[in-house]
Design brief:
Layout: E1 2-5, H1 11-23, E2 27-32, E3 37-42, E4 60-64, E5 84-86, E6 89-91, E7 97-101, H2 108-121, E8 125-127, H3 144-158, E9 162-165, H4 172-178, E10 181-184, H5 192-199, E11 205-208, H6 215-227, E12 233-237, H7 255-262, E13 267-269, H8 271-275, H9 278-290, E14 295-299, H10 317-335
Helix pairs in contact: 2-3, 2-10, 5-6, 9-10
């Protein structure tokens, strides 16, 4: 249920409504818009009829049921678009955001060189994996805490905020100590214990769509994070598994406008994991801008041929600079 406050409702009236919602066993999630405040009341649906009483409270204009199963992620519960800040970088605003860096942190030298490339190209956020969930148990699994420390040091030297993946609920507090944004990868999209844990984190979350996840399932996973108290979620389309074998995954660009119609959360695209081949990353990045995404996350490596993880889909520096030039040109054209 959402409770819509009158445009002239006072802060005191809003606070009393929030307190009343919680007194009847629901969680209150206020969304303060330019003209009015909307309060989402989320909880067990069995006694939702009691929420109609809110219409008699001072400052309340009306109540409305939220028809979507994802209550807090739905556009019905939030006025306007959510802007998520990663460090000082806003995602979901007018500027197209690029997150870039190597798939895996291999050494301080490798990550620092990658960061300089990323910054020179004009990307705003550095990506790098310290924990790497791999299909094979014999593949490189990441440098773990040592990698996080390297990432933190490189971030301080370059002033780039960072995003890195967390794969275990027990590691959330550790990763949050070093990173500016926590990534939930495709393999953990329905790891509900992990989703709840990052829902209690103070840092924003990048939530990647699973390989066989529907759009509704993606939004329901976001709902786990939102309902646990973390409002800062960015959705990521990274390709889904189909019968096609020409690419690693099939990039579902239609998911971007579909999600934009269903949710207030920002949406970014990962063309690297979708394509699995560096040759396709630039054209797919162009398409992501054109279809209305809020940003992209791409893999860049100083020497992809020596990368310990996903070198085939990583861009060399000169190709990354070309990507950034193309992205800026398309983004500028779309603003006019």
């Amino acid at each position: 249920m959402i409770i819509i406050m009158k445009s002239q409702a006072t802060d005191t009236q809003i606070e009393k409504v929030i307190n009343w919602i919680e007194s009847v066993g629901y969680k209150a999630h206020p969304s303060r818009g330019v003209e009015r405040t909307i309060i989402g009341a989320v909880g067990d649906n069995r006694d939702k009829a009691v929420l109609k009483y809110a219409e008699s409270l001072p400052g309340v204009e009306k109540t409305m049921p939220i028809l979507k199963p994802y209550k807090l992620a739905s556009r019905e519960s939030h006025e306007g678009n959510t802007i998520v800040s990663v460090g000082s970088i806003p995602i979901g605003g007018p500027e197209f955001v690029v997150m870039a860096g190597p798939c895996a942190i291999e050494s301080e030298e490798q990550l620092l060189e990658s960061a300089y490339i990323v910054k020179k190209g004009g990307a705003q956020i550095l990506r790098g994996g310290a924990f790497k969930p791999r299909t094979s148990p014999y593949s490189f699994q990441g440098m773990e805490e040592e990698g996080l420390k390297i990432m933190d040091q490189v971030s301080q030297r370059t002033s780039l905020p960072t995003v890195t993946e967390v794969v275990n609920p027990l590691d959330v507090d550790l990763v949050e100590t070093y990173a500016d944004m926590l990534q939930i990868g495709a393999r953990n999209i329905q790891n509900f214990a992990l989703l709840k844990k990052v829902g209690h984190a103070r840092k924003p979350v990048l939530l990647k769509r699973g390989m066989m996840t529907t759009i509704e399932e993606l939004l329901m996973s976001a709902e786990y994070i939102l309902s646990s108290g973390n409002p800062n979620v960015v959705l990521c389309e990274r390709g889904i598994r189909t019968f096609e074998t020409a690419t690693r995954n099939t990039l579902d660009l239609s998911a971007v406008p579909v999600l934009k119609g269903l949710t207030h959360l920002p949406v970014v695209v990962d063309p690297s994991h979708a394509a699995g081949n560096w040759r396709f990353v630039i054209p797919l990045s162009r398409a992501a801008v054109a279809v209305g995404a809020d940003g992209i996350i791409v893999e860049v490596h100083p020497e992809p041929e020596k990368a310990v993880s996903d070198g085939a889909q990583s861009l060399k520096p000169e190709k990354f600079y070309q990507l950034m030039d193309d992205v800026r040109a398309i983004a500028a054209a779309m603003r006019h």
